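Subject: complex prediction, re-run

Hi both,

The earlier run crashed halfway through, so I resubmitted it with identical inputs.
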Amino acid sequence: MKATGIVVEYNPFHNGHLHHAAKAKELSGADVVVAVMSGQFLQRGEPAFADKWTRTEMALSAGVDVVIELPYAFATAQASEFARGAIHLLDAAGCASFCFGSEQGEIEPFLNSLELLNTKREQYDTIIHDRVQTGISYPKALNDAYLSLKNSSSRYADLTKPNNILGYHYIEAAHAVNRAMAPLTIQRIGAGYHDPLEPGVAIASATGIRNAFFEGEELGELAPYLPTSSIRLLERVHAEQQGFVDWQRFYPMLRFTILREGPKALARFAEVTEGIENLIHESAKRSETFDVFIARVKSKRFTRTRIQRMLTHIFTGYTQQEAQAVKQPEYIRLLGMTHNGRRYLNERKKAIPLPVISRAADLTGSMGQLDIRASTLYLQAIGADSLKKEYTTPPIYLGDSSDK
Amino acid sequence: MKATGIVVEYNPFHNGHLHHAAKAKELSGADVVVAVMSGQFLQRGEPAFADKWTRTEMALSAGVDVVIELPYAFATAQASEFARGAIHLLDAAGCASFCFGSEQGEIEPFLNSLELLNTKREQYDTIIHDRVQTGISYPKALNDAYLSLKNSSSRYADLTKPNNILGYHYIEAAHAVNRAMAPLTIQRIGAGYHDPLEPGVAIASATGIRNAFFEGEELGELAPYLPTSSIRLLERVHAEQQGFVDWQRFYPMLRFTILREGPKALARFAEVTEGIENLIHESAKRSETFDVFIARVKSKRFTRTRIQRMLTHIFTGYTQQEAQAVKQPEYIRLLGMTHNGRRYLNERKKAIPLPVISRAADLTGSMGQLDIRASTLYLQAIGADSLKKEYTTPPIYLGDSSDK
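This time it finished cleanly. Structure:
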């Protein structure tokens, strides 16, 4: 059996994701779609609006065959590390190709960009370093470096676009893994990432959908944008979790943690650098809500996403020391599979170079312990009753594929 | 004007405390009663059931003239350190005497004990050290040491009794401060410390009264045991805090904090020693309620009180490093005063060797910052709205003494 890989967060799973999984399979000619998915915390530095098991079930109900958890150490890291961890896992899982959505919609410009940047790596790194020193954000510096190097006679990926940047990092990571995993891309269609919901557009952004949740829209009204299975699972998790999860919900715990650590100690957590610890501490002291808090801390230099990643690391107690020890993903944690996915894994099993983990209790190394810790804290912040879930939930198995 | 000092927690202020304050004044012939009171966390390693301002107001309404906050670094330390900090502050506040309640009820046996133990200090310390090594608790070791040294021809304080032990430490501390502050004691009357409430006994234990609260008794039914002013203030704080405070209420935050730190890092907090960090971590993971949790952790060697002090330090992030840096109290933080108390302080002001602090913003050193942190975390754990209180609450002034 042949597999293609995708990298996802499914926050939540919507029609755009349905399209992505189907197209990945079609373009690659694969029999199964393997998704590497962030766990309880996401790359933009946020707790997932619903736990990883619910999001896994959504994916399995709508075209994905295997869901693997991207370890916390990669899932909440900056884009290049996120991509590196994800691509490494797709490679380990035996995917012959991987497929990402991009604004670009064609693979060639990405390959040109990679070649350009690889041949001019030194200049590129120097420019990024210098630009970051002037106080601009990392994505902006990356784009500036790239613009100043590119050759007008070739077609390059537009690295001002968020999905193109991520795609570039996937390709860069796949190149480094040095294996014949073929890169594929599909055009993102429908709404942009940050766009609000538009009636009549069958593909809405995850952000738009989440905002609709938090503004109290009925789940039923989101039916045009989500597979029926997603709606059903969202209704279930909404009842179980007593609402959806966002930073505002976790703010009492976050604020407590920031105030408890004090400004000095905050500087030891991953990504917390350059004296921002005082601003974080002072703002937490003065802000009653998360929105007020983040508005006080974010700036042109420290984007909301970057600040949120710092907050995620403070929340989970993830230190710079821990981050520096991260090398490669050390295991494949299986969150779920369809009947088809199980057949693939059984066939493939012996060729997989990493341990395939079905139970949290088997995660004995520090990378796995961190995943357990992050998940447990997420569950504790929702409500103490569900704390054992991390240990007792087996990989979700969806034998019935009638939903697809 | 002449002052006598008392050391209190008022958790809550009840008829026994009323008796104590009145008797201290009577025995000492003082014009004012100065109380050194624990802040938001207590010596038995618990959050106070009501905030320090409410407890101050109870005290001022019922016979105490000046309330000074015992800094966290002493208030939550073991008995000898607790006593040392409190006595130091009473001395700094200019008290000519201090008065404590004891099972003994007479001062001479305490002075005999002190002399005995001072002359045999080395043997005493050796015995305590050896006994603790065998796995028995510190108070038990202290009592064993003392029993094996005492001379049958003199009358000694019975150091198996909790209030006698504390009294002994007061006298020991006053002796070390080396000043002519006269020790006085009164017989504790009514219920014992741990006794449940008994109808018809006008003095009930604070523990008994608190248990009645948490078991849902109407405040009005406690009228026989508390001054009217205390009942009124309890009703107010119950509404403000949405109930009273105990570890169960703080358990979600405590549990989150323990799980976030992980077993290894727990060992850096004050009093967390001898490998108990693993048991604390494992028990937090498995226990849905504080009662179940503490039952799992406490033992003959690690008493409930000792464990609770560890938990308090974990909760507030108070490290061994911070604890080791503690020397003497560095300021007199004024929580409240009556008209009479204000007159005394004004008269005395210039002779007070420590800064008298009325606003949290003036607590700039690490000891004061710790007080702010502990109080702020207490407020945050109750509910975010009241977080600024630590900064905005001035010392309570009770001009009207009609209540006494």
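DSSP finds 18 helices and eight strands in chain A.

- K.
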